[in-house]
Amino acid sequence: MQFFCLPSMEVSGHELCYISHPNYDKRLSCNILGDLKMKKNWAGWEVWRFTKVNDHGHFVITSWTHDHKVLCSNPDGGVFTTENKHGSWEMFKISLHPNKNGVRIESVEHGRYLAFSGHDLYTMDKEEDTAWHLEPATNHFFISSTCHDKRLSSSHDHPFTHHNRKPWEKWVIEPTNDQIGHFILRSLEHGKYLGSAEDGRLNVSEVKHRWVIISSPHDGVFIQSVDHERKLACYDNGHAYTSEDSGGWETWRLEPIMPGTISGKQIWSFVGIGVATVVTAVAIPFAAMGVVGAMGFGAEGIAAGSMAAGMMSAEAIASGGAVAAGGTVATLQSIGAVGLGAAGASAAAGAGAVVGGLSSLGAVAASRGLANELEGTMVELANSLPLCSWRMW
């Protein structure tokens, strides 16, 4: 059986993860100065980029927001950041923890494991308190019907579909720890879980209903109830239900919502004239695609510290944390990610592609209008078992 993995891989092959300590429910965070803290947040400063540097499974771990800051440890157990991406102290090995649920993050040079006591972050040569959970940089999604341009939405009382991409349409997709390949879907706005009945009706409640996510031959995924083996579906009138069929109405796209973030460079670059200039430039034809890349929209995703990142942060702050599909940032990133030509740029501007730079099995083609140009950019994560799928190792 091929398992679905939540998006965590960038098109470049690097991986974006949270480094989370399960005992204290805190994430490793890097602030503007590069200082390391353990925070309760799930935001941009807590996202780390894992770059594989050789065939031995060694990684350089850099802050996604402050991309010049590199995780490092010394022989005495100190943990800090540097700006050296090529040193031996900056290389780490990721492996399953032999005794606990999680992974170990081991310094290649010193043979010591990353640990957290609840107050201090350090490395140690023992295995106590060294279990970590690597979670995908985003588990927040818009769940879009591929046939009807509708998003799965929810009120306090019942689910439905809507054309919006607003807070009611945001869903958290979380893997269950006790069963590989099972997920629960929680409304980010209301905190209730999506469930279904045997007769096909959907509901939202405090009960955690299990779903599996399966690749669909119709350019997307099936979201199937574990209990009833019926797939989430959307009628042409927008009515949401579950079905025993396996067609286009049962096919969905998962549009990742990246966490909002802001770097030191962006704070100083947030000036009105810069944003106004960029917005004006977007309104005219893209005469040179190199301009898009220079702004920070590229194949590796949106570059931290760039004008693109500043625009993304401004848009995310204005919209409550999401970067809207169809907006300026989303369109520019879709162009930068795959180097679209003039025709593709026009299609992107018209269709409004989904931002993210992340990919997974069956998840997120930028838009139907761009399907041909984007073909081949997706990464089959289930085949490569990324770090965030450590539960499947």
Describe this protein's structure.
The structure is a single chain. The chain is α+β, with helices and mostly antiparallel strands and 393 residues long. It has helices spanning 264-269, 272-282, 289-294, 307-319, 328-338, 342-351, 371-374, 381-384, and strands at residues 9-10, 15-21, 26-30, 36-39, 47-52, 58-63, 70-73, 79-82, 91-96, 103-107, 113-116, 121-124, 133-136, 140-145, 151-154, 159-162, 170-175, 183-187, 193-196, 202-205, 211-216, 220-225, 231-234, 240-243, 252-256, 297-298, 301-302, 358-359. The longest helix has 13 residues, at 307-319. The strands form ten sheets. Strands 2, 3, 4, 5, 6, 9, 10 and 13 form an eight-stranded antiparallel sheet that branches. A four-stranded antiparallel sheet has the order 18-17-14-25, with no helix packed on it. A two-stranded antiparallel ribbon has the order 1-28.
The counted number of beta strands is 28
Strand content: 25-35%
Termini gap: 14 Å
Specify Rg, calculated over alpha carbons. 21 Å
Number of helices: 8
Task: Give the oligomer, counting copies of the same chain as homo and different chains as hetero.
Answer: single chain
Give the structural class. alpha+beta
List low-pLDDT spans: 276-289, 315-326, 337-385
Helix proportion: 10-25%
What's the overall average pLDDT, rounded?
77
Note the overall shape: elongated
The major beta sheet can be summarized as:
8 strands, antiparallel
